[in-house]
Design brief:
- The chain has five helices and six strands, in the order αββββαααββα.
- With 217 residues, the protein is of the alpha+beta class.
- It folds into two domains: 46 residues; 171 residues, no CATH class.
- A six-stranded antiparallel barrel has the order 1-2-3-6-5-4.
- Helix 1 runs antiparallel to helix 5 and helix 2 packs across helix 4.
- It is globular.
- The C terminus is likely disordered.
Length: 217
């Protein structure tokens, strides 16, 4: 009984800590973004692009926008969306047919970079570019990644943590000037939301139930 009481007290303390105000960037408003550098010296190398985000610092990102330009040194304001929780209302390609699935295909490919050799990154980025612009030509390696993402979509993306993927979109999301900034995807953990305290409280409630069953047994 003492063991359950101690665990429950610890969980309550953690939940209260999470319920306190959290310092850090406020992504409910646009933030400043700066283009730091390409990987490999040019855009053709694809992922990762290096960006600076106000309040966060340098991050690595994947470009999903083949048509728009952008050069190191450029700065702009952008909205940040979480693919798993906030939808794609402010995203650049949200008016495409079945846009959410397309973003999830791109997000799935991006997530695979964490377990894939960097030698695959260029093919992976070209597959993502093709998802939103089918005029982008693909070699066999990029086609393989595209088909793998489409297969994941067909089976419903089981157990894919899309809440780890953030979309960084210029505030002028439908900007017709192709020399202006692109849209990017990132899995940088500093852009992810803090777990809800309700999750911890539910776990604590479950432990109380187990404690009561132990007393009654």
């Amino acid at each position: 009984m003492k063991r359950f009481a101690v665990i429950f007290a610890m969980l309550l303390a953690v939940a209260c800590a999470y319920a306190s105000p959290i310092s850090g960037p406020d992504y409910s408003n646009p933030i400043d973004v700066s283009f730091l550098s390409f990987s490999g010296g040019g855009w053709q190398s694809g992922y990762p692009y290096n960006l600076g985000l106000a309040g966060v610092g340098p991050i690595e990102a994947m470009c999903d926008d083949y048509l728009h330009g952008g050069e190191p040194g450029q700065t702009w304001s952008a909205n940040i969306m979480n693919l798993g929780t906030q939808g794609i209302g402010l995203a650049r390609f949200n008016q495409m047919s079945d846009a959410l699935t397309l973003y999830k295909e791109a997000g799935w490919i991006l997530l695979q970079t964490t377990i894939t050799s960097p030698t695959q990154y260029q093919d992976m980025n070209y597959a993502v570019w093709h998802i939103f612009d089918n005029a982008v030509t693909l070699d066999q390696g990029a086609m393989d990644w595209l088909e793998a993402a489409q297969h994941e979509a067909e089976i419903g993306f089981p157990h894919v943590p899309f809440d780890h993927v953030s979309i960084i979109t210029p505030v002028d999301q439908y900007d017709p000037n192709l020399q202006n900034p692109q849209e990017f995807l990132t899995i940088d953990s500093r852009l992810q939301s803090t777990p809800e305290p309700g999750t911890l409280l539910l776990l604590g409630t479950g432990l109380v139930g187990l404690w009561k069953r132990k007393l009654l047994s």
